[in-house]
């Protein structure tokens, strides 16, 4: 009974956090009228990773509650992507991204080996997205408009998803993904806070 209650709590807390996960980041960008410090490459890779992961869960008919947050995060990421393109004056690229993601969504399930291979690569893609953001932070030594709250909430949802995956599907590929993401999300959060502190002491 206790395990069932914890599982339900993990699902619900993940959905609640994910429904607002990008709002601090969106608010920071809108308030500043700038996407300084944010890596476009990181966001595009993150979006690609989320799309593959969502498609994989749907394809294998996993329980809806184990991935319900993904459509919500994807929608928020799309808005953030449009804001970055808008503030950097590259709105023309939006159509190209839309066509690429739409095409990818359909291509993924043409063959079973494609979705399995994509899921294996998904962890690498998502890890690359976090590393791209870290590189951007190291390069500028300035956390700019990057939201530590958004990244720490991402770390929390990875932790809850490790628990729910063990309790439900026990899919090793999914587990490896969440453990890797948890470590990298904590690393990015710590880096943002470090540069923010350094700026205050300056």
Describe the overall structure.
The protein has helices at 2-20, 23-32, 40-59, 69-87, 93-107, 112-140, 148-167, 172-201. The chain has 202 residues and is mainly α. It has one domain. Helix 1 (2-20) runs antiparallel to helix 7 (148-167), helix 2 packs parallel to helix 4 (69-87) and helix 3 packs antiparallel against helix 6 (112-140). The longest helix is centred in the last third of the chain and has 30 residues, at 172-201. The radius of gyration is 17 Å and the shape is globular. The termini are far apart.
Helix content: over 70%
- In round numbers, the mean pLDDT is 93
Report the count of strand segments.
0
Total domains: 1
Number of helical runs? 8
Instruction: Give the CA-CA distance, first to last residue.
Output: 53 Å
Class inferred from helices and paired strands: mainly alpha
How big a fraction of the residues is strand? under 5%
Overall shape: it is: globular
Reported for the largest beta sheet, the result is: none
> Which value, in Å, is the CA radius of gyration?
17 Å
Q: Which spans of ≥5 residues are poorly predicted at pLDDT below 50?
A: none
- Order of helix and strand elements from N to C terminus: HHHHHHHH
